[in-house]
Design a protein that fits this description.
CATH class of the largest domain: Alpha Beta
GO molecular function: phosphatidylcholine lysophospholipase activity; phospholipase A2 activity
Pfam family, one: PLA2_B
Number of domains: 2
Radius of gyration: 25 Å
Organism: Melampsora larici-populina (strain 98AG31 / pathotype 3-4-7)
Protein name: Lysophospholipase
InterPro entries: Acyl_Trfase/lysoPLipase, LysoPLipase_cat_dom
Distance between the termini: 68 Å
Length: 758
């Protein structure tokens, strides 16, 4: 297909639509796209689309190419009233940033709305939820018919209490790891295993699932105070919230595939790739291939126009806006195979994250029941995380974020950080407002609608700042790319904390926050000998078990002392560095002070190895007045040699000033079968049968427990006492508050499942 077009905009559309059979864009057509050189536009299929997005977006959105342009070849005129664009509204009375702690950080304050939500949930919802859970456990344990399988009386007494103060304070931390498959063995760019793994494990603990309830594990999820997510798990949580806490297999695979009728739940449509959705369509004939290209063109045109409406409204946009709209087609209710390409459904275009607080169905969904999970407090309070892009010019080429940079969190009520050098928040519904020293620059111009749910998902999963590693991963491209990270690759948010915080708050003077994937937090070595794998300095060789993973599990929101979380169930999924080569500093530029990288090949197996826990513990130790993390092995070798990665482990069993951590790690099947849940972060498409197989394997991870050696020799790969032991762990801090001694079966469980330094 010739790419001779009348405008750069049409050239972009043709690039995106020509997903197959095109090896190179001509120099002439490339010249029509500012900022693009033909040498970067080589390849085909998904690689071609990805590269076009990476190098073309910045040049296109800097120019007013398509404002008011009629798309005659599509027969559509862009509607400027589309709801993706934020709006300026008068500021609320006395609007300002909220200070969340005292100067010494010893006193913390939660948002009043969060306090009210948790109080209502604990008094109105959790007594029944815990009672239902303990009923499931007791029914399961009574059916074991084995000696010594009687729960201590205090377990039932605590979990069936009508007094909310006596109930456990338990929460979930769900790891990210967006997209996972072996990209080096296939040219196909494929879908989201981190989210799929997390959904399957959450399903194990969902009391609405009859199988989970009968296993003695169902009901735990329904009784949590909080649930945190980042990257792929941010997709999962927002999708789950918007679906009114639907059964998780229905949410992912579609209700029809699970034998149920629910027109809202067509699943995540994992068969439609995030960059090449038409690849899933029939393309056996020339007519079918041309039709698919046409659909792809219309699809991308619609997304680009929607995103550009935000720019015309006066707000910064970047690739994350486009990424968020792509994600919305999969993770927000309304998409199905019939409307995916025809534009008749809103695909979450006007759904905001703060809007979940007062969730009313949009016009498309008026025919269905109004969502009430947030209003009725049936949802564990959700908190997502994101990180700032590095400002230190020495590390301009590194996507990972050191410990001393801000860990931002966002809930439907607030956006900000409890880190002691900032400790400030603004209402999520007013994200995008320009503030200075905590006050709006113009009281008549506060922002509303900036927190689009798709944009929030994209923000928390933004790995585009690692584009140099991505280009190397996909295309073995190691050319001299520009130093630093173009801001267009970050989630651009007007900085509401400008002029606030201490000198340790590195974004203090920035007009905009440049936000990236919440799972790219990683400490740097003291002498910066290695970057992105700093633990190797102290750990020695590059053995597989020692390759560290960033903070892919969002612990920090649950460590805030004011939240009073006593038990954390952590679902730790995957490696976040699986797409990166090991980067070693080979030299330093004397003029710019920038570090120069050399590369080694890294062979990651993509399973959890404990590094995420280690990094979270190290960072929490830097700010003891704010965060308290239980003791954990500080060497990944111990996680592997002690078998901690292969079974649930309890950390902090005797540390009553820190939360008890119940760590469930994604690991290979212990029955010797071939693993499929360790897909790479960049896998963007899954056939439905593969998705279902992954969920089954991930379910086994949640139900496995810690089988004894004698059981393993008999071919028994699950611990029948795991549900009972989990209930013992959930009540243990509440037991301590009552001054009751640990006893009986719970003692045996803690002897087996607890990790101690000895």
């Amino acid at each position: 297909m010739a790419l001779m077009t009348k405008s750069p905009y049409h050239a972009m559309i043709l690039i995106l639509s020509s997903s197959k059979g095109v090896a190179r864009v001509s120099s002439l057509s490339c010249a029509q796209l500012p900022g693009i050189s033909s040498q970067l536009l080589e390849g085909s299929g998904s690689r071609y689309i990805y590269k076009a997005l990476m190098v073309a977006t910045r040049g296109l959105i800097q120019k007013n190419f398509w404002q008011h342009e009629r798309l005659g070849f599509i027969g559509e005129t862009y509607n400027p009233s589309a709801d993706y664009a934020p709006k300026l509204v008068p500021c609320p009375k006395d609007f300002k940033a909220r200070t969340a702690s005292s100067r010494d950080s010893k006193t913390q304050e939660l948002a009043p709305e969060e306090v009210n939500y948790i109080d209502a949930r604990r008094s109105q919802v959790l007594p029944e939820a815990y009672n239902s859970y303990i009923t499931n456990v007791e029914r399961y344990v009574s059916g074991l018919r084995e000696p010594g399988t009687v729960l201590p009386s205090y377990v039932s007494r605590i979990l069936s209490s009508k007094n909310q103060t006596a109930l456990p304070r338990m929460s979930f931390a769900i790891a990210g790891g967006a997209y996972r498959g072996d990209q080096r063995k296939t040219n196909r760019c494929e879908f989201a295993a981190g989210a799929i793994f997390a959904a399957a494990v959450m399903n194990v603990f969902d009391g609405k699932n009859v199988t989970s309830a009968s296993s003695g594990l169902g009901g735990v999820l329904n009784a949590a105070d909080y649930i945190t997510g980042l990257s792929g798990s941010a997709w999962l949580l927002i999708s789950w919230m918007q679906s009114e806490l639907s059964p998780l297999f229905d949410l992912v695979l579609g209700a029809k595939r699970m034998g149920r009728e629910n027109p809202e739940l067509s699943g995540w449509l994992t068969q439609y790739g995030l960059l090449n959705p038409t690849d899933a369509l029939e393309s056996n004939t020339f007519a079918e291939r041309m039709h698919n290209r046409w659909l792809q063109t219309v699809y991308w045109t619609r997304l680009i126009l929607q995103v550009n409406s935000k720019r015309f409204a006066g707000f910064p946009i970047g690739i994350v806006d486009l990424w968020g709209r792509i994600l919305s087609y999969h993770f927000l209710s309304g998409s199905n195979p019939d409307n995916f390409f025809n534009g008749t459904a809103p695909h979450g275009i006007n759904q905001t994250f703060s809007g979940f607080v007062n969730f009313s169905a949009d016009a498309f969904w008026d025919q269905y029941a109004t969502r009430t999970c947030f209003k009725n407090h049936t949802l564990p309070f959700p908190v997502l995380t994101t990180l700032p892009q590095l400002q230190d010019s020495r590390y301009a080429n590194f996507p990972a974020v050191p410990y001393n940079y801000t860990r931002y969190e966002i809930s439907p009520y607030e956006f900000g950080s409890y880190d002691p050098f900032l400790s400030s928040f603004i209402p999520t519904k007013n994200l995008g407002t320009k503030l200075s020293a905590g006050l709006p620059e113009d009281k008549s111009k506060c922002c509303a609608g900036f927190d689009n749910a798709g944009f929030i998902m994209g923000m928390s999963s933004n790995i585009f700042t690692a584009y140099k590693y991505l280009l190397d991963f996909y295309f073995n491209l190691r050319r001299n790319l520009p130093i630093g990270t173009p801001e267009i690759l970050t989630a651009l948010v007007p900085n509401p904390f400008r002029g606030l915080g201490t000198k340790e708050y590195f974004e203090k003077d920035e007009a905009e926050l440049h936000l990236i994937d919440g799972g790219l937090g990683l400490g740097l070595c003291p002498k910066f000998t290695f970057i992105m794998i700093c633990l190797l300095v102290s750990h020695g060789s590059l053995r597989r078990a020692q390759r560290p993973i960033p903070e892919v599990t969002p612990y920090h929101p649950l460590l805030v002392r004011a939240r009073k979380v006593e038990v954390i169930i952590a679902v730790d999924g995957v490696s976040k560095l699986d797409f990166m080569r090991i980067a070693e500093v080979s030299s330093q530029d004397s003029k710019t002070n920038r570090l120069i990288l050399s590369y080694q090949t890294a062979d990651f197996n993509n399973f959890a190895n404990g590094s995420s826990v280690i990094h979270s513990a190290r960072r929490a130790a830097l700010y003891p007045s704010v965060y308290k993390f239980p003791k954990v092995p500080m060497n990944v070798t111990k996680f592997t040699t002690q078998g901690l990665v292969e079974r649930p482990t309890f950390f902090g069993c005797e540390e009553f000033d820190a939360p008890l951590l119940i760590w469930i790690a994604n690991s290979a099947p212990i029955d010797g079968s071939t693993p499929i849940s360790n897909r790479t972060t960049l896998q963007l498409t899954f056939p439905l049968n593969q998705t279902q197989a992954m969920m089954k394997e991930s379910t086994d991870v949640g139900t496995r427990g810690f089988p004894s050696r004698s059981a393993l020799t008999k071919g028994q790969f699950k611990d029948p006492l795991w549900p009972a032991c989990l209930s013992c762990a959930i009540v243990d801090r509440a037991r301590g508050r009552l001054g009751v001694a640990r006893e009986g079966l719970c003692n045996d469980c803690f002897n087996r499942y607890c990790w101690t330094e000895k």
